Each structure stands twice: as C-alpha cells, then as structure tokens.
Amino acid sequence: MKRGFHPRAFLLLKRNVRLGLSARTRILQILENQEVNIKTIAGSSELNYGVVAHHLRLLEAERVVVRKGDKKPFVWVLTGAGQQRLVNSKEQ
Length: 92
Hints:
Layout: H1 18-33, H2 38-45, H3 49-61, E1 65-68, E2 75-78, H4 81-91
Antiparallel strand pairs: 1-2
C-alpha cells in the first residue's frame, strides 16, 4: 500500500527524496498533536535523534517549524507557513 506524505514535508530549497519525506512526515504528525522537544519526537517517531535534529533544521529554514523558548531543550512548534505555500500554489 502506498503511503502518502504530509503536505508540509515537501521542501522548496532541498531535493525531496522518499526517505526524507517519510521522516519529515513522521515528525510533522507528532508536532500536529503537541509541542515537544527533539528527544520526545525521536522516541515517538522511532527515528534517530540526529535524523530528527537534521530534519527540524531543514523545516525551520523553510519556516514550517519554529523553536519555542530560550533555553535548551527547545520545544518545537508548527507554523502555518508550509500549508500556506501549498494553498497559494494551488491558486495560481
């Protein structure tokens, strides 16, 4: 069965390969339900801590997620940016 990817998992500035899309989809599904730190995301998604950190940095560069708080561990939060880009691209 073919598994779909989260619409916000697609990046504009990087090449979108299946493995990365899958990892970002897992991360984004967790962030849709709660604001959490990297360790919690890694445990819930069954992804390596470094993989989660890498993809969060990519998503942060495209303003899909932001870090909340000023001391570690940071809590990660979804923004409306990724979804907004998706809506705008369909209107054109």
